[in-house]
Structures are given as C-alpha cells and as structure tokens.
UniProtKB/TrEMBL annotation:
<keyword id="KW-0812">Transmembrane</keyword>
<keyword id="KW-1133">Transmembrane helix</keyword>
<feature type="transmembrane region" description="Helical">
    <location>
        <begin position="21"/>
        <end position="46"/>
    </location>
</feature>
<feature type="transmembrane region" description="Helical">
    <location>
        <begin position="265"/>
        <end position="283"/>
    </location>
</feature>
<protein>
    <recommendedName>
        <fullName>ABC-2 family transporter protein</fullName>
    </recommendedName>
</protein>
<feature type="transmembrane region" description="Helical">
    <location>
        <begin position="170"/>
        <end position="195"/>
    </location>
</feature>
<feature type="transmembrane region" description="Helical">
    <location>
        <begin position="66"/>
        <end position="92"/>
    </location>
</feature>
<keyword id="KW-0472">Membrane</keyword>
<feature type="transmembrane region" description="Helical">
    <location>
        <begin position="202"/>
        <end position="225"/>
    </location>
</feature>
<feature type="transmembrane region" description="Helical">
    <location>
        <begin position="104"/>
        <end position="125"/>
    </location>
</feature>
Length: 295
C-alpha cells in the first residue's frame, strides 16, 4: 500500500501547475455559474433564501448538466496513464499492478476533488442568500409545488423533497455524480491502455454519447413517441443508461419501477470493477516506452 500511495502521490506533483488542470477547474466554475443562473433569477425575483446545498441539487439535477460537467474530465485525464521520466524508477521497484493501482487511486482522488469543487462552486455562488439549516427552503417549495420549476427547467420535484432532508439528499446526489464521473475516468484510462496513445478520449466520448442517446427525451424525440408511451422508455433508460443512473430524480421513490439509489450505486460498483479488470489485462500488453526503448 505504501508503494501504491507513493505512485499516486507522485502523479499529483505539479497538479495545480498543469494548464489542463487549471483550465478544467476554471471551465467547471464557469459551467456552475451558467447553470446556477436559473436559481439566481428566482432568488432575486421573489427575495426568498435557499438552503446552502439546494443550488447544487438543482444545478446538477438533470442529465444535461451532469453530462456537460463530466465531459470536462476528458481534458483532465487525456494523458493517462501518466508516463514521466521518473516512471521507470517506479516500474522497476514495484509491479505493474501496484503502479496501476497508484494510477487508479490518483484518478479516484482527482475525480473526488473535481466533484467537491463543483459542489463548493454552487454553494459559493448563492451563499449571499442561503442558510445552513437542514430544512428545505421556501424557494424549493415554489419550484417543486408549482410550474415555476418546470418553466425554468429546474429539476426540483415533490418526490425528492418528500424523500429526505437537503444534506442527506446532497450526499446521495454527489455520490451518484462522483461514481458516474469515476466510471468515465476509468473508461478513458482503460481506452488509453488498450488502444495506446490518447484513444481513451474517443472511448470516453462514446461512453458519454451512449448515455446521451439513451436519454428518454432524446429517444422520445427520435421515435416520435407520445407522452403516454414514455413510461416504458423511462424505465428502460433508467436501468440501461449510466447517465440516467447518475440523475437523482430518475430513481425509485416508491412510485415506479425505476432503480433505487442503492441499486444504482451497485451498478456503478460493478461497472468500475469491470473497468479495473479490463485495465489490468490491458496493462500486461502495454508497451512502456522510455527514451525510444521498450520496457
């Protein structure tokens, strides 16, 4: 474990000096601001406060916002696996599996840091009119119990508010987004190991495109389905699409046959295990090249 942590720690050296990292987090903040403007309009118009984490729940409560935020990880992890002049030192002194475990630990830690940054960004953007009490705000009630939320495309629904308090809801939403983003990051890593070079970005785009095409609204538009025909599409997409598993509002709260949050967490866990096994198998055939020579 000490060797794994040492390899992961080395991957973080110069992390904040890397232009790709700085650009990713800057674009993430800009995205949070643009998506949060829908909530800011309501706050300013009705002069009602919000609970501290509610902007995060609404900003990243639909598939489009989650997809856009996760796509920035393509830029952050485009160079995986991180091969530097010091990499031969680690590969000589530890097995490939331990080195890969260090890379996986680095990817997980960086993804968690990115998810936490997006949460913090939405909190800071609306902190002037927010409070920390663990109770839903009047703004949330207006958005959920009227057509205002639907008109502004804010995913605040009654079933979400009735299920649990804000902080517990935030933990579940953040966990779903983190695991989806982590799956995308591991897809990029596995793609780079299997196809060499930076082909993992293509694999990441295909993974994201698969979730987008399986979005119920996208399927309904393509097939020209009526509203009464969308129930089976919603249920099918809710189970098959990784992106739908990351959307908190598309889960079973006792009203339908959609997956529960716990089932989605298990699905992501199984997908991550599969990606790790694929990466381990691909690593055995990966041609490490340093100074024009193969390991």
């Amino acid at each position: 474990m000490r060797q794994v942590l040492a390899a992961a720690k080395f991957s973080f050296r110069g992390f904040w000096k890397n232009p790709r990292v700085v650009l990713t987090f800057l674009l993430g903040f800009v995205l949070s601001y643009l998506l949060s403007t829908r909530i800011m309009v309501v706050i300013e118009a009705y002069h009602t406060p919000v609970q501290a984490v509610e902007p995060f729940l609404w900003t990243f409560g639909d598939s489009t916002a989650i997809l856009l935020s996760s796509l920035l990880l393509l830029l952050l992890f485009s160079d995986l696996p991180g091969l530097t002049p010091v990499s031969p030192y680690y590969l000589i002194r530890m097995t490939r599996k331990k080195w890969l475990a260090g890379e996986l630990f680095y990817v997980a830690a960086a993804t968690l840091l990115y998810t936490g940054f997006m949460l913090l960004s939405t909190v800071l953007l609306c902190m002037k009119n927010s409070y920390v009490g663990d109770i839903w705000s009047e703004t949330a009630a207006m958005l959920a119990y009227s057509k205002l939320g639907q008109n502004l495309s804010v995913p605040s629904t009654v079933k979400v508010m009735e299920s649990m308090p804000p902080y517990l809801c935030m933990v579940q939403v953040a966990a779903l987004i983190f695991l989806y983003s982590l799956c995308l990051s591991f897809v990029i890593l596995a793609g780079n190991l299997i196809f060499k070079g930076n082909k993992g970005m293509i694999a990441g785009l295909l993974f994201s495109g698969f979730g987008f095409l399986l979005d119920p609204q996208t399927i309904g538009t393509i097939l020209g389905l009526e509203s009464y025909e969308m129930y089976k599409v919603n249920v099918l997409a809710g189970w098959v699409s990784p992106l739908s598993h990351a959307v908190y509002a598309r889960h079973n709260f006792g009203y339908d046959r959609l997956p529960t949050v716990r089932q989605s967490l298990l699905v992501f866990g199984g997908l991550l295990l599969f990606l790790v096994l694929i990466s381990l198998k691909a690593l055995k055939r990966y041609p490490f090249t340093f100074l024009g020579e193969k390991e």
